[in-house]
């Protein structure tokens, strides 16, 4: 399965959790276009189609049909983080990631013929709020709820590596797509001319275009040298103030209305302090070392490319 090309040398059978999310939907579409067989493992039966398997961590053990015959498993499931964090919400954020990974690891270890590779979700939240420090995969974890979740989430995938499966933990940054996520929420505000820097504007934002994110996952899938943590971020992080200015320029709108930190803290509390108001200046060292080339390495290029995809 080792290949430096974007096209796989052979078609694979791939099981994908979180397959209906922003990233999962784009990934499944791309993998199927490449000729791979994709089995979607869904959280709820609502959007299930023939061939899908319904499973989530709350259901206990993974059904045998979910992973049977899989050459690769891509685990992207997890409760959304962008809400005010109650104790219940925190438990759901944690269990949907850590517990589900533990259960998948148990299932993989029990298989006679194991998948060759397991791509497991993680996030740059691993590094906590680190100011201007330049962070790569060798940097220590930070403090805070999200960092703790990411550490446990990655640790839950480790037993598979001991069982001979190549494990890659995908430390994802802010994924840019008009279809959802942070950019999806910001676009209506910026298009009305109400956008601007958030808080001090000095916090670093490590981003990646959705197209490059899917390409990076494919690269990790087919490149044997990629294992362990991989930062899925573009090589050029920006400050929050620069992000606002560049998005304003791309949309030809002023972007000067600041969002005070206290307003976000009032609305979102701890979640705002650890995400929107925190910063990580992260570089994709593992991807670059493995020969991955970004299609849109700069923010302006990525925004223009992703917004073009929105046109009918």
Which key features would you list for this structure?
seven-stranded parallel sheet, 16% strand, Rossmann fold, 312 residues, disordered N terminus
> At the third CATH level, what is the topology name of the domain at 13-175 and 208-233 and 281-295?
Rossmann fold
Strand order of the largest sheet: 3-2-1-4-5-7-11
Taking the sheet with the most strands, its summary is:
7 strands, parallel
Integer average pLDDT = 93
- Quickly give the structural class: alpha/beta
Shape: globular
User: Helical content, roughly?
Assistant: 25-40%
What gap, in angstroms, lies between the N and C termini?
36 Å
Order of SSEs: EHEEHEHEEHEEHEEHEEHHHEHH
Low-confidence stretches: 1-8
The Cα radius of gyration reads 19 Å
Give the name of the CATH architecture of the domain at 13-175 and 208-233 and 281-295. Answer: 3-Layer(aba) Sandwich
Give the class-level CATH name of the domain at 13-175 and 208-233 and 281-295. Alpha Beta
**What proportion of the residues form beta strands (DSSP E)?**
15-25%
Count of β-strands: 13
CATH H-level superfamily of the domain at 13-175 and 208-233 and 281-295: NAD(P)-binding Rossmann-like Domain
Number of helices: 11
Would you kindly provide a written description of the structure presented here, covering whatever features stand out?
- This protein has 312 residues and is of the alpha/beta class.
- It has a domain at 13-175 and 208-233 and 281-295: NAD(P)-binding Rossmann-like Domain (Rossmann fold, 3-Layer(aba) Sandwich).
- The protein contains eleven helices and 13 strands.
- It has a seven-stranded parallel beta sheet with strand order 3-2-1-4-5-7-11, sandwiched between helices. Strands 6-13 form a two-stranded parallel ribbon. Strands 8-10 form a two-stranded parallel ribbon.
- It is globular and about 60 Å long.
- The two termini are 36 Å apart.
- Residues 1-8 have low confidence and may be disordered.
